[in-house]
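Final report, closing paragraph on structural work. Over the funding period we assembled a curated collection of sequence-structure pairs, and we close with a single example.
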Amino acid sequence: MFTVIKPGLETSVQDYPGRIGFRNQGFPPSGPMDSWSFRLANLLVGNEPGAAALECQYMGPTLRFSSAAIIAITGADMQATLDGETVPLWQSLYVQPGQALEMKFARHGIRAYIAFAGGIDSPPWLGSQSTFNKAGVGGIEGHALKEGQEVKLHAVEIDKTMAGRSVIESARPELGDGKHWNIQVVLGPNDDWLDERGIDTFLTSNWKLSGKSDRTGFRLEGPELTFSQKAIHKAPEHGSEPSNIIDQGYPVGGINLAGETLIILVNDGPSMGGFINPFTVPMSEFWKLGQAKPGAIFNFTAISVDEAQQQGRAIDALCNTKNII
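Its predicted structure, as stored:
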């Protein structure tokens, strides 16, 4: 068990792959934004890669442990210390009862992950422990951590020999400077509602990540796109604006054109609506979104669905105990 001394900024319980199979009821998958870093954190402490752990964004929490634990921190560098001593990233460590883990503002990246041997013990909701804050479900009482909360861990025998294990560098995501990201996309499902010029504009322009972004959607600032005749001359039930379409299901990662604003629908995004989605960010690229700072510049490159799936399998292969030494 640990006690939350300071909650950080919307620190939440997530698991991987999240809440699957309920989008038709309006519930998104949630889960970690950077599932690559998340899974490696769990492997470091001997858990299954999808076990419930903490996602910290921008500023991490301060936690005091009431029992011994093996923990690991991956992803963004939030200047973590244990009783004032610097904690290495991408490495497991032993925590004694009474010690305090303190995390500050992220220096590189945006989201850090804290995994605990045994995983967090919280009641699943629709088959997942992932927090969906806006609906108040999952996680710990449906919301981000709060000051004074006591969080239970599943009881496991603590093996001190698990401490000191690390992820080989070649298996870690490269966070870079966080200011520029090349994001790969697949065309569709509504790319035919843009003309060739509109598609080319999207793929050749710089897009700025707006500060008005969260786990529901990432707003992009950039040029206006142009539409095909299909979007302009359409049946009235599709709506009056070229970007309007009769309500349809939205893919996770869909780049939603709401009027003239592009919004990437991420982990807690809506499952349907009346705007087109000309492009989709595959899940293999979500780790980049999860580590991108507001103000970062995105450039997009089109790939095929097969290529996106291959990249997803390549990341899955890296999230393996053979890359823990």
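The mean pLDDT is 96. The helical segments are 35-44, 196-204, 229-232, 286-291, 305-318. We thank the funder for supporting this effort.
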